[in-house]
Write a structure and sequence with these properties.
The protein has 160 residues and is α+β, with helices and mostly antiparallel strands. The protein has two domains: 75 residues, Arc Repressor Mutant, subunit A; 77 residues, Arc Repressor Mutant, subunit A, CATH 1.10.10. Helix content is 51%, strand content 19%. Strands 2-4-3 form a three-stranded antiparallel β-sheet. α4 packs across α5. The longest helix is centred in the middle third of the chain and has 26 residues. It is elongated and about 70 Å long. The two termini are 17 Å apart.
């Protein structure tokens, strides 16, 4: 499943709206000071938010020149309350990615993959999860009945 919508915080959305609403006056970029003056945030907060938006490919922020250049202001977004809500959402996104990896592994093993293979794919594969997060995701997927543990003579296996 491909997820095209970006998840942003309310403060990130404030900056995006400010940039979008001033495109006539500032068609390609806006000075940092203009952004900071309009928003009721400290300079450090504004810099952190701009860096976050830059990491999500909405803008480019040149700290030396103190200018914000637009990259992609029209991308679809979903707004969450704050960073803690964003982290909660990202766990769900991580679960989704992990489930995709698990599905691929299970299909390679004829619908029953050994427990250690599943765990290894999550720990050392493209997701590189920590042991605790791997355990939590597997338990969460079992609780949601997306993954089932099966005991066999030769060990523990998982199936969908």
């Amino acid at each position: 499943m491909v997820f095209l919508m970006q998840i942003i915080t309310k403060n990130e959305n404030k900056i995006l709206l400010l940039l979008k609403n001033n495109l006539e006056e500032y068609p390609t970029s806006m000075p940092f000071d203009n952004i900071r003056d309009v928003l009721d945030l400290t300079e450090t907060q504004v810099v952190d938010i701009l860096k976050s938006l830059e990491s999500k490919n909405f803008i480019n922020f040149d700290e030396d020149e103190k200018i914000v250049t637009y990259s992609n202001l029209e991308e679809d977004v979903e707004i969450v309350e704050d960073k803690s809500a964003l982290k909660k959402y990202m766990l769900n996104k991580t679960e989704e990615d992990a489930y995709q990896v698990i599905q691929n592994v299970i299909h390679k093993y004829d619908e029953y993959a050994p427990k250690y293979i599943i765990e290894g794919a999550l720990l050392y594969g493209e997701l590189e999860l920590t042991p605790k997060k791997t355990y939590n995701i597997i338990v969460s997927l079992e609780n949601k009945q997306l993954l089932r543990r099966v005991e066999r003579r030769d060990g523990e296996y998982y199936t969908l």
